[in-house]
């Protein structure tokens, strides 16, 4: 093994741990804000929307669509987090600055997911409030937790002390 290059299983384990945590944190935040605080949606409708990216308008009439939405959201979160772990393992500055890296990563994820929504035909022009909410969700409740978990799992023990 070359110096500084981690084996793929370590990256995958770090990414999966971070992706699961990130998915839980961002979903918990969105449910608290959108469902309970703003009363702008329901949990079912939130996941119907996610599923609609894959199956279109049929998601809103399919009682199983929320399960697909949850599965898709977790899969996407895992993919992003494994990708972050890959970049972090090869870029020491990313591991050294998890707060800054997490905010930047969360912003990249937010913009990319907006582009996915456009491509899927489900994009809704955001209001200032929804854009701010998306920014907080993706940076504070996804990007930062992913960055800290990946850093914790990949950084040498001496660097974490």
Structure description:
This protein is mainly α. It contains 7 helices and no strands. It has helices at residues 8-37, 43-55, 65-90, 92-96, 98-120, 128-154, 157-160. The two termini are 25 Å apart. The model has no long low-confidence stretch (mean pLDDT 92).
Based on Cα principal axes, name the global outline. Answer: globular
Helix content: over 70%
Q: Could you describe the largest sheet, including whether it forms a barrel?
A: none
* Global mean pLDDT: 92
Total DSSP E strands: 0
Written as H for each helix and E for each strand, in order along the chain, the element string is HHHHHHH
Number of domains: 1
Number of helices: 7
Percent of residues in β-strands: under 5%
N-to-C span: 25 Å
Structural class by helix and strand composition: mainly alpha
In the predicted model, the low-confidence regions spanning at least 5 consecutive residues are none
Report the C-alpha radius of gyration, rounded: 17 Å
């Amino acid at each position: 093994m070359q110096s500084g290059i981690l084996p793929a299983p370590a990256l995958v384990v770090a990414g999966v741990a971070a992706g699961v945590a990130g998915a839980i944190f961002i979903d918990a935040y969105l449910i608290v804000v959108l469902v309970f605080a703003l009363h702008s949606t329901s949990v079912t409708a939130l996941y119907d929307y996610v599923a609609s990216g894959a199956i279109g308008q049929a998601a809103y009439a399919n009682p199983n669509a929320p399960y697909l939405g949850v599965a898709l959201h977790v899969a996407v979160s895992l993919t992003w987090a494994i990708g972050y772990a890959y970049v972090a393992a090869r870029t020491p500055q990313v591991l050294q600055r998890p707060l800054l890296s997490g905010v930047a990563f969360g912003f990249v994820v937010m913009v990319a997911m907006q582009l996915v929504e456009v491509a899927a035909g489900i994009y809704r022009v955001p209001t200032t409030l929804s854009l701010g909410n998306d920014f907080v969700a993706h940076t504070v409740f996804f990007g930062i937790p992913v960055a800290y978990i990946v850093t914790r799992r990949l950084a040498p023990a001496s660097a974490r002390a």
